[in-house]
Specification:
With 438 residues, the chain is α+β, with helices and mostly antiparallel strands. 24% of the residues lie in helices and 28% in strands. It has helices at residues 14-19, 43-59, 77-91, 110-125, 133-150, 173-183, 201-204, 253-257, 294-297, 427-433; strands spanning 3-6, 24-25, 28-31, 33-37, 64-68, 163-168, 187-193, 208-211, 263-269, 275-285, 289-292, 302-307, 310-316, 319-323, 328-332, 354-359, 367-379, 382-387, 399-401, 407-414, 422-426. Strand 9 (263-269) and strand 10 (275-285) form a beta hairpin. Helix 4 (110-125) packs across helix 5 (133-150) and helix 4 (110-125) runs antiparallel to helix 6. The termini are far apart.
């Protein structure tokens, strides 16, 4: 088995990343894993030149290259089942040199993939109070799916082949660990962190940090990676990316539960820093914008935000706007977010329609419950959705989702004297309230 040594040669710009040619010597392969922080005046031009050079070399069959703006979500039930089976066969196999077989691997590559997966799962568990087998499995399933999506089947897969991957503004722990995972299969990886670097401090040590300027909001040039030509006469490779604009389909409750990563827990502090209340919130803008209830944040001097699968606590006193009548408020934290979609209103919700509620009742982070829409009410001039999915204190500010995974309401009230009588501010009020912040 080839061993990997990280950052013996360090890339300090996109152009130098393109020129680095790491080889294998005495069973050790040098790989690059660098985070470029901030923006320089030349960054956009350097990125385009890097694309041009690496695309040219890929067309010539010298290497494999991808620049990734974002990783695809894993939502198709058949894909979830397939990669879960891949993981369970690997996890249940005897011995230590276990193989993982996926669509994108052959028999000579499976052991390398298994070794990389074991190493990354150890990193994932390190420093966490409790990681259940379900959490391990779900993370590993995403790793394998992302791997096949990004690298599966390409002609430069072997330990000695050259593969270069560039990703933009990675802010989630699991996605960052995926790119580390790629380096353990022989990829050189460059992370362009132009907008921020909100990663776990402990995990940052896996990569080399190079600051090139101040963080900014300007987007990087769009990726332009053509189809790869076959290396040395081999067949052309087309890496299949799931279509983003497919016809909508209803999701399973397991798939809906995966959206909990876009629902946050909010702790409300008084002027002395003491916690005086808790609630939930919904990521609605990539620039750090979180929607919650006005009654959740009312009376707070500052707020702490916890995000699933992120050990960092985000402190803020930025209450951007609030509306007591609608019972809506908008906070902002210093972190890039993955907003959950708000229903566009193509068809009015109806009584009896299935829904799911995600929130943090009694401080139990991101609990999910199911129910139906039981009615529509107008209270103090505000249109409300009445639903039966159970919620408790602390669920306020959480998401009420339709079966397509879209927010149709934000939990705002429940009646203790009535079983499963709960109210949510509807999507129409939400869309108007957050206009300009998405």
């Amino acid at each position: 088995m080839i061993k990997y040594r990280h950052n013996y040669i360090v890339a300090t710009s996109p152009e130098s990343f393109a020129q680095i040619r790491c080889g294998v010597h005495n069973g050790v392969r040098d790989v690059c894993f660098v985070r470029l922080l901030g923006r320089s005046e030349k960054l956009d031009r350097q990125v385009l030149l890097m694309d041009q050079e690496l695309n040219r070399r890929m067309q010539a069959g010298e290497l494999y290259y991808r620049r990734i703006a974002s990783l695809p979500g894993l939502t198709a039930q058949e894909e979830i089942a397939y990669y879960t089976d891949c993981y369970e066969q690997w996890a249940g196999a005897p011995g230590t040199r276990k193989e993982i077989h996926t669509k994108g691997t052959d028999r000579t590559q499976a052991e390398l993939l298994g070794t990389a997966c074991a190493s990354v799962l150890q990193c994932y568990q390190r420093g966490k109070a409790a990681v259940t087998e379900s959490m391990r499995r779900n993370f590993a399933v995403k790793l394998l799916y992302w791997f096949d999506t990004v690298c599966g089947g390409n002609t430069q897969w072997s330990g000695e082949g050259c593969r270069k991957i560039v990703a933009e503004n990675v802010c989630r722990e699991q996605e960052y660990l995926f790119y580390y995972f790629l380096t353990l299969t022989g990829c050189d990886v460059l992370l362009l962190q132009s907008a921020g670097d909100p990663l776990n401090e402990q995990l940052k040590g896996l990569s080399k940090e190079v600051r090139i300027g101040q963080f900014g909001t300007q987007k990087l040039p769009q990726p332009n990676c053509p189809k790869a030509a076959g290396a040395k006469g081999q067949e052309k490779l087309v890496v299949k990316i799931p279509e983003r604009n497919r016809k909508k389909r209803e999701k399973s409750f397991e798939e809906l539960a995966a959206l909990a990563s876009s629902i946050v827990l909010i702790l409300v502090h008084d002027a002395k820093g003491e916690v005086i209340g808790t609630g939930s919130g919904i990521m609605v803008g990539s620039g750090g914008y979180i929607l919650t209830n006005d009654h959740v944040v009312r009376g707070g001097a500052s707020y702490s935000v916890r995000i699933e699968n992120d050990d960092q606590v985000y402190h803020t006193d930025e209450l951007i706007k609030y509306n007591p009548l609608l019972d809506l408020a908008l906070l902002r934290i210093e972190r890039r977010l993955a907003p959950i979609p708000i229903y566009g209103g193509e068809k009015k919700p109806v009584r009896g329609q299935a829904v799911a509620a995600i929130g943090s009742p009694l401080g139990l982070f991101n609990s999910i419950s199911d129910g139906i829409i039981s009615g529509f009410r107008t209270i103090d001039g505000v249109d409300m959705i009445q639903f039966t999915a159970p919620i408790s204190q602390g669920s306020s500010g959480g998401a009420v989702l339709n079966m397509y995974g879209e927010v149709i309401g934000i939990s705002t009230a429940g009646f203790d004297r009535g079983q499963n009588i709960n109210l949510a501010v509807g999507y129409e009020s939400i869309r108007l309230f957050i206009k300009g912040f998405r």
